[in-house]
Amino acid sequence: EMCIRDRYQRRVHGETDSLMEMAMVNGISFPFTEAELKILNGVISQVQEEVRQKFPDPESQKIFASPNLLTRFFVARERNHDATITMWRNWLEWRLKEHPNRISETSISAELASGKAFWHGRDKVGHPCMIVKIKNHFPEQTTIDRSILFGTYMLEKGLRLAEANGVGRICVIWDREGFEVSKNFDSGVVDLMKRMMKIFQEYYAEILDAMYVINPNFFFKMIWGLTSPFLHERTRARVRLCPSKDDLLNYFERNQLLPEHGGTSNYVHSFVLPTNNDVPELKDMNVSVSEEEKFYSIPNASQSMIQEEDIYDGILDEHSHDRLVIRAVSYTHLTLPTIYSV
Q1: Least enclosed by CB within 10 Å: which of 40, 118, 139, 288?
Q2: Edge-first strand listing for the sheet containing 170-175
Q3: Model confidence at 321: pLDDT above 60
């Protein structure tokens, strides 16, 4: 309340406070005391200085020292300066090592095509929704590492969707319909969930608005009891058990839900790995294509081809400055290039 009141008074007098703006960015409101705002301001200043020293290009500074990111980490670490800095450094080290923004669709094409998880619709607030259909997960057909890669890819995409929607958070519908222990579960599933929870909490903190579990039964509650202690209390509180699919109508409009969830959307998930011919803009540009990674390298590309919102977490100094590297992103009925780095 203090944050909101002070922000309003500053606007009345024609003043601005970028920190207070950022503390409430993308539709997420975090009320802070004056003391907490001072600590957060110190965190942002320290991180911005560290990033300036490590990454001279403005785009990397914008990405790696995002006030929105640091505000989420600040909340996740109970508004503690040192713990927030440590969390950010661990996040930066992880991103530079794992490059989650560069996970190729080729490497997870089977998961993408399976329909075990996909993005569709949004709740009444505007949070993009990930649909998880656990009946489409067959442990013997994949590996834990590949599942981790797929899960990370989905979180990266969700974060971009949330930021594009101006809401900063995502929601999840966990659909248990058709789940069978003999087909969809083995001892590795618990390990998978624990590892994904660690990634989720350490590197994507505070992006979950709610997870809706449809028809939770005794088995789900047992597994939840084993894995939920690895989640923060705030995150656990965002898991909502829905004994009936009609409960979803409290949070979603019908046209944002699939028919099996009580909605009227005619969306049908499908995935086809894009090829060079799928992107018409590239046909006459002397484009070389990496078949393994599905990255397109365009020689002598113009900087003007790049739209700011298309660049996300690119490590800009890893590629030659005389070419443009993009990756094709497949949608249900449309394939467009998403620009990653120059």
Answers
A1: 288
A2: 117-122, 128-133, 170-175, 208-214, 239-242
A3: no
